[in-house]
## 1
Amino acid sequence: MLSPVKTAVLLAPALAVMTVAGLIPLAIVAFYSVHDTFAGNAFIFVGLEWYRQLLATPEFWASLGRSLAFALLALAIQIPLGLAVALKMPSSGWLSGALIVLFALPLLTPAIVVGYLWKVMSLEGAGLLPFAAGLFGGRWDMNAVATSWATLALMDAWHWTGLVVLLCTAGLRAIPDDHYRAARIDGASRYAVFRHIQLPKLKQVLLIAILLRFMDAFMVYTEPVVVTRGGPGVSTTFLSHELVQTATIQFDLGEGGAMSVLYLLIVLAVSWAVFRVIMPRPERSDA
C-alpha cells in the first residue's frame, strides 16, 4: 500500500491539470456572477443581484423546465431500451463483437455531425423521416412542436442509447455463471432470473448510466441548435441556449456567470443524489 506522501506525489500532476482546466475557469465565472461588467474590463460588485434577477425571470424557469423535460424524456427512452437490447445481446462469438462495435460507432460521432445528419434526415421532401411518415399517410412537419421534440428525442436516442447498451452488457457479463446455474436448478423463469439476479446486479450500472445520460441530455446544446435552432418559437430553446445567448452574444458576463453557477449547482445536486444511492451505507456496529 502506498504511503500518503507517494500517493500525493502521484496525484499531483492530475490535481494540477484539474486546477488549471477546472477550478480556475470556475473561479472566474463565479467572479463574473457577482459583478456587473462595463466595457469588458470594468467590474462593479453587485453581490447576489444577478441570481435574484435570474430566479425572478420567467424565461429562465421556462428554459430550465424544457432542459429537465428533455433530460427526463431521454432517460425514459434510452434506459429501458438500452437494457432491453443488452439482455438480448449474445454473450460470445463474432456477432457479439460486431454488435458492440456497431453500438459504439454513434458514440464516436461528433455532436455537430450528428446534428447535421438529423437535420438532413428531417428535411421535408428529401429526408428519411418525412418519407417514412408519408408511408403511413402522415407528415413530418418540423414547424410543429411535437415533431421537433420527437426529432430531438430520436436523434439523442440514436446517439447515446449505445452507451447504455455497452454499460449494461458489461454488467451482465460480470454476473457469475453460478447464479444462472442455481436458477436453472430451482426452475426459475426468465422473468424471475431478471427480477432477482440480473436487475439487482445491474443496479449500480444503471445508476451510473442514468447519471451520465442525465448530465449529457440536460446540458445538450449543439444538436438542437443545428436541427431546430431552438424552434419552433422557443419550444426547443434549452437552458444551455439561453446561457450561450446571454454570455457570448449579448456579452452579459454577470448574468451569464450567474446562470452558469446555477447550472453547475443543479448538475452537482443530481450527481450527489445519485452518488448517495450508489455508494453503500456503512454498517453500524453495535456498541
Note: The radius of gyration is 23 Å.
## 2
Amino acid sequence: MLVFVAACGEHLPFRTPLPFPTPGQHDLVVLLQPGPLTYASDDAGAAAGLEHDLIEAFALELGVGVQYLMATPAELEERLDKEHYHLASAWLSPRAESGLQATSPIFETSDVLAQHEASLPLNKIEQLAGKTVHVMAGSRQAATLQTLKTSIPDLSIVEIAEGDILDLLEQIGKGRVEYVAMDAQLEEIATQFAPFLRTTLKLSEKQAIVWLLGRQPNTELAARAAAFIDRIRHDGTLARIEDRYLGHVQRLTQVDVETFLGQIETKLPKLRKWFENAERITSLDWRLIAAVAYHESHWDPNATSYTNVRGIMMLTEETADRLGVSNRLDPRESILAGARYLNLLKDGMPEQLAEPDRTWLALAAYNIGPGHFNAARNLAKVLKVDANSWFDMKQVLPLLAQPKYYEKVKSGRARGGEAVILVENIRSYYDILLRNESALKPATPRIEGVIGINPSRAEGPGLKLRR
C-alpha cells in the first residue's frame, strides 16, 4: 500500500515513539525527500527512486504498508524535530549534535564543487575565497559550505529553494551560475544532462548515508532496520537496487551526450510524430522508442549495416517481412515495426518477469535475436543465477562469445556483450529524453519503477500528487 500524508509541518496524531509497524494495524511512516537519489514520480504518477525502493523492500520484509510524508530540503531539518515518523530517508548523513539516532551506513558519499569544464579549475579549498557558490537550501552541502565559511569569511553562499539540483547544475551551462556544491554520487547522473560539468574540488571527506530514526526510535524497529541493512549489503539486494538507478550512467561519454543533445534539437522534431504515432498504437513510451532508434541508427532513416539490417530501427529483412514492412527505409513503417517487435519480445517473456527487467531483457533480445537470448537464459539457469533479472543477465550475455559456453548451446556464438552495451546506452538516452521531452498526452501506461524518473517532476509540499 502506498499512502501519501499531507505535509503541513504540524504534529501528527501518533504516539511517541510510534508503534512498531504491524500488518493491517500500523504502517511504516517515512519522512522522505524528493530528489534524483531518493524519490520522484514518472509521468503516469508511478513512484520510484533508489531510497524509495529500499524503503519498499524494508516494508515488504516487515509485511506492512508505507505512509510517506514528503519534505523539501529546506524544510527537512525543522520537520525532523516537529513530526513523528519511523524513519527519515533523504540521502541523509548523521550529525551527532542533532540528537537523532541513525541506522548503520547504507552508502558512502562526499560533497564536491561543480563548475564548467571551460573555467579555471579550483583544486584547493583556499581558492573559494571571494567566490560565490550556489547550493540547494537545507541540503547537506549547504551545511558544509557554512562550515567552510567560518575559515573563509569572504566565501559567498547562495541557497536556492526552488527546483532541484539538476536544474541548478544546468544553470552552469547557461553561464548564470559559476559554482555549485553537490553530492559526489550525483556526478555521473548529472553529466548525462549537463556534460560540461567538472568536479575537481572535494568539499568534504566521505560521509555515511543513513536512515534517521528520530530522537526516540522504536527499539524493535531499529533492530529490524539494522538486520535489514546488513542483509541487503551481503545478499546482493542493495547492489541490484543500486544498479537499477546507477548501473547505466557510466556508459556514455561526454561527446556521446553532447552529440545526442544536439540531435534532439535538430533531428528529433522531424521524426517525433512517427514516434508518438507508434506510442498510440503500441502504448510504449515514444521516448523509449526514440531512444532505441537513436542507438540503432542515430535517427538516420537510410542507415544500413554490413549485415543488411536497415532503416531507422535497423530491422532485419526477416523481421520486416514478419511485420509487413514494405520499405525498411520509410521511417514511419520502420519505427512502428520496431515498436511492435519490441512489444512482441516483451510479451514473449515469462509472465512473472516484472518491470523494468522485462523491458531491458526484451531490448537485449531485440539486439541478438530471440534464439541467442533464450540460449543465454538457459545458460543463466545452468550457472544458477536469475534469468529474470537484468542485473544477472548482463553478466551472462557476454559469455555467449566464449567457446566454452557457446559450444554448449544450439544457437552458437553471439555477441552478447554488444546487447549489454545497447541496453545500458538506451537506458541513458531514455533518461535524457525524459528530462528534455514531454510525454504524449493523454498519458499511456508506463514502465513502473524504472529508469527515466524525472527529478524535476519530483513531488513535495505544494505540488500536486498524481494518484
Note: DSSP finds 17 helices and 14 strands in the chain.
## 3
Amino acid sequence: MSEAAEKAYQRFLADVGNDEGTGEWFQVTQEQIDGFADFTHDHQFIHVDPEAAKNTPFGTTIAHGFLTLSMLTHLAKGASSAPEDPARYEGLLMGINYGFNRVRFVSPVKVGSRIRARAVTTNAELKGNAVETTRNFTVEIEGEEKPALVAEWVTRAVYA
C-alpha cells in the first residue's frame, strides 16, 4: 500500500455521506442526439426523426439514455460545490472509471431540455494503491418532477 493512497483515502473517507452539491444546467440539443446516434449506430426514430417523434407520447425526440449516462463525465465536474482538496491528489498516477453498480433511466430527456447532476459520496475504500469511491448521481431535468437518471458510479484513484 502506498503512503499517498493511505493519506488520500482518509480525505475521501471524510466525504462519505456528504452532498457534493448540484452542477450547472446543460442543454441537450438535437445535434448532440444526432451525433450520438451516428457514433453508436442507434438511429431509432424517437431520437433522430422529429416529425415521427411528434406522434409519440413524448411529442418530440428524446436523448438516448446512454447519451445522458455518458454526460455524467461532464455533469460530474460541476456537481461538486466544495473547493478541490489538492492534498487528495498528491502522488496520483491516474483516475479510472471502474463502472456502475446500478443505473436507472427514470424519465426521458426531451430535445431542448436542460439537465444537471447532483452527487453524494456513499463509500470510499482503500484497494492496495488505489482509493475506490462510490458516488450516487441524480441527473435532474429542469421543470420535471422525476429525474432523467440515477446511477451509482464507482471510480478509482491510483497512487504511486
Note: The chain has six helices and six strands.
## 4
Amino acid sequence: MNTIKNILAVSALAMGIAMPVSSFAQATMDQGKMNMSQASDSMTDGEVKKIDADNGKITLKHGDIKNLDMPGMTMVFTVRDKGQLAKLKPGDKVQFVVVQEGGKMVVTDIQSMR
C-alpha cells in the first residue's frame, strides 16, 4: 500500500512540474508569434529630409509610429546599419522600423518605396 502511495505522490509531483513547463512553452511560442507580427505591423511611412551618413543619422518626416505610440512629425533618427543610408537620398519615400534602445530612437530597417 505504501508503494502505491509513493507512486501516486511521485506522479502528482511530476504532473505539477510538467504542467507549468508546458504552459510556459506555449506562452513563449505565442509571444514569439506576437513579436513577429508586431515587427511587420510596425513599418512606418516616411520621407527622407536629410542624411548624415558619416554619423549614421537620418532626418525623416514620418507618419504615426504605432509601436511607440508616437504621432507623425519630422525628427532625426540614428540608423543601426549605416550601409542602409547609401541607397537613399532626400525626397525618397520610405518605410522604416524604429525601436527604442538605450534611450535613443534607432532605425533597424529602412526601405525605399521606389
Note: The CA atoms of residues 41 and 67 lie 8 Å apart.
